Every structure is written in structure tokens, then in C-alpha cells.
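Everyone, describe these C-alpha cells:
***
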Amino acid sequence: MRPTPTRSCRERSAGPGTARSPGSARAAERSPPAPSELLRWDATGIHDGLEDLADLVNGHAGTYAADAGLTLDGAVPPFVALAYEDRVALIQELTTPGHPEKDFWVLLSLFCNMAFDSAAHLHTAQAIEDGHPGLEAMGITKPDADGLWRFQDFGYGRQLADLHPATTLSGSPA
């Protein structure tokens, strides 16, 4: 029987783009939202083993730090204590051809991606209404009351064309 962990998986290895607590200075500047919350979703199929995965990556982080002569902040898990650049280097090391655990870490990376793409069978509005964690993490908002999405900021920083005068109220061409 495994002992009950004293800290949650999120506390032990929160993703690099997520502040671990209010006022945390450890959120990496150039990293995407953490997939750790998405991996907790039962649709991934690996949600029950996240504690073990956190232990494994923290073990590798401790070894990486020792090999690199880095002193880690003992108040946080080893992976969290690594600087962004060192986390990237560690993940590159783990996923490089020839590493004995490469296949496992590549698969985990694919699961992270899958967590964002696990509602393709649903209409986007329904997935958002159901609280799909990938869409939420990407900042996709609910459509307006009429069911259409409108964006205040254009994707190219400017409006590319005027609305055609024959466009219907639903946004379809006439």
C-alpha cells in the first residue's frame, strides 16, 4: 500500500506556465498553460497514475540538478525548483533517442497534447459548456448569446475585410 502523499501532484510538479500559489514567482515566462490539470481528467486514462509520474520526473530532476551542480530550493519539488531552461533541457534529455525511457516520456507528452484535443466529437459550444479543460486552458470563451463568436481583437491586429452587406444575421452568406 502506497503512503498517502503529503503534497498534491500539482504542488509537487505543477506545469511550467502555472503559478503554484498566489504571488508565486516560479511561473515560467515563456511556457504554455500546464497540462497537469488536463491530465487529471479521466478521459486521458492516466489520471490515476499522476502521483507516480510526478515522483519519477522529480527523481530525474534531482539527478539532473546534481549532475549539473545546481542547488535546488528544498521548499518545492525538484522539477518545480529547476529554472525554465533547465526543465526544458531535462525534458529534451528524457525524450532524446537513446534514452532508456524515451518512449515513455514521448507518450506522456502525447497524452498532454491529447488532453487538449479530447472533445473533437462535440460541438465547440457544448464542450465549453461542459467545462472542457483544454478549451478552458487555451482561453476559448463561450459564444455570444446568439451562439456566434465575436472577437474584440482581430487575429492579424486589424480587420481584413468589411462584412458583406448580404450576410445573414446568423453570419452566413446570402
The helical segments are 9-13, 36-39, 50-68, 78-81, 84-94, 102-116, 124-129, 133-137. Residues 1-21, 27-33 have pLDDT under 50 and may be disordered.
